[in-house]
Design goal:
By secondary structure, the chain is an alpha/beta fold. The chain has 20 helices and 13 strands. The strands form four sheets. A four-stranded antiparallel sheet has the order 1-2-4-3. It has a four-stranded parallel sheet with strand order 6-5-10-11, with helices on both faces. The protein has a three-stranded antiparallel sheet with strand order 7-8-9. Strand 5, helix 5 and strand 6 form a beta-alpha-beta unit. It is globular. The chain starts with a helix and ends in a 9-residue tail after the last helix. Arginine (ARG) binds next to helix 11. Arginine binds next to helix 11.
Length: 545
């Protein structure tokens, strides 16, 4: 049950009776009571009454029988104390979406022949959590892995592969750098690479075959990385930029027919309303370049058109770094103007900040290059191996630590990649929660024959834990609404802390049979909630650490 929603409902009715119109009761967890409402403070001003009197009337009128007791506190708060029987009896349920939607989530989106980089890490981790959550809520989720598999660099890459360049799934970067180095120093190679772009774009079969090989090897590399990361993306979720090639001329035709294109500097451009540069001049979105080629924006326009028009999306989500904000705002504005993105299909940019090094600067490797994703994971797993026994567990803990560190900070802000902190066994970290889970599992295991039984609430720490457990559903509802996973991690951390306090004060296995079975139930519910919460974040929960 969603306790918070139930309390809010009952108070809302009482507030409406007092005010004569609907009032948001603003019921929240409170340090002074189980829950509290501060809405009387504001309503009193409107009614020209004393806030304490208004709160008292609301408390009197609220139908809370069997749920909670209400009392006035401080300047005019309504404090709520939840009934012990309810805390003992009820369990949180997983909320279900009232109207299931088709939601397209654009995430991960690495680039062919390049290893994933840190911004792909964030996109993959956040996007996958969003996908897991929306699936659980009952939505039809389409994972769109917008693979960067097209564009001018592919002339150079294909040419290098045809020349016998070494390509393996575990060194994409080496291949890319070798091609790049030749392009920068070898005039003949450069000339051939340019011709190769033309061959590729005009559909020359041998060129395409080599390009396909390059894409195939890269996909294999990414699938291996996803498997290691425990990400739900599959091979079938790759929808590369090249997928839209045939649509691009149509995109231009339709925009043109709707009068949305203008020639500017030889290129075909859209000028969506409301985008002006520093000089106040409208900023162009280049749809077709002056050389006749199409770029990133054209592909993204085609993708919107396809996702809504063909996939039937009711909602579009883009998990992409904050620097691409203007790009997407412009693309969507043009797509709305073109009628490809109807007003009732919301689109959101789940933008995220950068990953910084412990020096507070953009993460760079010692030699000054951008850091490879695999290097970060290796580092976390290496440290995790110092904490745990076997390799599988170290992978789960290392990767869990990275995901948790990412998801536990507000996604919009930068976060510091600090292996020492993210792998700490105390504090708000992945390993701390995994450890809490494993610890409870071991208690349950030791209980042997004794089965969990009806919950009896006697000790204040039992009560605090039961109250925390029941807050799960409201937390999930909030996360579903906001897609802010740091709210879920904060909840899980509070739950694990409540468990730890409970366990210190309330012996489980050494208590009398009835109490033991009750406390085992609390243990089981806590373990279940931790497992379910961490699973939403894509974090594994080994039974033993
Ligand atoms: N491949 C791009 C990059 O590495 C991200 C693509 C994001 N998605 C999109 N539809 N443009 O930055």
């Amino acid at each position: 049950m969603n306790l918070e929603a139930l309390l809010a409902d009952r108070l809302a009715a009482a507030f409406a009776a007092v005010a004569g119109h609907p009032v948001d009761p603003a019921v929240r967890r409170s340090p002074h009571a189980d829950y509290a409402s501060g809405a009387a403070l504001q309503l009193a001003r409107e009614l020209n009454a004393s806030p304490r009197d208004v709160a008292a009337e609301v408390a009197r009128k609220a139908d809370l029988a069997g749920i909670a007791t209400a009392e006035v506190s401080g300047p005019g708060f309504v404090n709520l104390t939840v009934a012990d029987e309810l805390l003992a009896r009820e369990r949180p349920e997983f909320p279900k979406a009232a109207t299931p939607q088709t939601v397209v989530i654009d995430y991960s989106a690495p680039n062919v022949a390049k290893e994933m980089q840190v911004h792909h890490l964030r996109s993959t981790v956040i996007g996958d959590a969003v996908a897991r959550l929306l699936v659980r809520l009952g939505h039809d989720v389409r994972r769109a892995n917008h693979l960067g598999d097209w564009g001018t660099p592919f002339g150079m890459l294909v040419e290098h592969l045809l020349d016998g360049g070494e390509l393996s799934t575990d060194d994409l970067t080496g291949f890319y750098q070798a091609a790049r180095a030749r392009f920068d120093t070898d005039e003949d190679f450069k000339r051939r690479a340019r011709l190769r772009v033309v061959a590729l774009q005009s559909g020359d079969e041998p060129t395409l075959a080599t390009w396909r090989r390059l894409v195939g090897v890269s996909k294999k590399h990414f699938m291996a990385a996803y498997a290691r990361m425990g990400v739900t993306l599959t091979e079938g979720d790759f929808v590369g930029e090249s997928f839209y090639n045939d649509d691009l001329p149509r995109v231009v035709d339709e925009l043109h027919a709707k009068g949305l294109l203008r020639v500017s500097g030889g290129a075909l451009c859209a000028f969506p309303e409301g985008f002006t540069g520093r000089d106040g001049e409208p900023v162009p979105l280049i749809v077709r370049k002056s050389d006749g080629g199409f770029g990133y924006a054209a592909t993204d326009l085609a993708a919107v058109r396809y996702r809504v028009g063909t996939l039937g999306a009711d909602r579009l989500l883009y998990v992409v770094g904050a620097p691409q904000r203007t790009h997407f705002q412009m693309v969507w504005a043009v797509a709305r103007a073109a009628g490809w993105l109807p007003d009732d299909v919301p689109v959101e940019h789940l933008a995220f900040g950068s990953i910084l090094g412990t020096d507070g600067k953009m993460l760079k490797s010692r030699s000054g290059e951008t850091v490879r994703l695999s290097a970060l994971i290796d580092e976390a797993v290496r440290r995790a191996a110092e904490l745990t026994g076997d390799g599988t567990t170290a992978e789960a803990v290392g990767m869990g630590a990275i995901k948790y560190a990412d998801l536990s900070t507000d996604r919009r802000t930068d976060y510091v990649f600090d292996p020492e902190r993210m792998l700490a066994l105390t504090g708000n970290t992945g390993p701390y929660l995994q450890m809490a889970y494993a610890r409870i599992r071991s208690i349950l295991e030791k209980a042997g024959e004794t089965r969990p039984g009806p919950v009896i609430i006697e000790h204040p720490k039992e009560r605090a834990l039961a109250l925390e457990l029941l807050a799960f559903e409201a937390t999930l509802a909030t996360v579903a609404e906001t897609l802010e996973f740091h709210r879920l991690t904060a909840y899980l951390y509070a739950l694990a802390s409540a468990f730890s306090t409970f366990y210190e004060a309330c012996p489980v296995l050494r208590s009398a049979p009835g109490v033991r079975r009750s406390r085992l139930s609390l243990c089981e519910r806590t373990a279940e909630t931790l497992r379910e919460g961490l699973d939403l974040l894509g974090i594994r929960t080994p039974e033993r650490l």
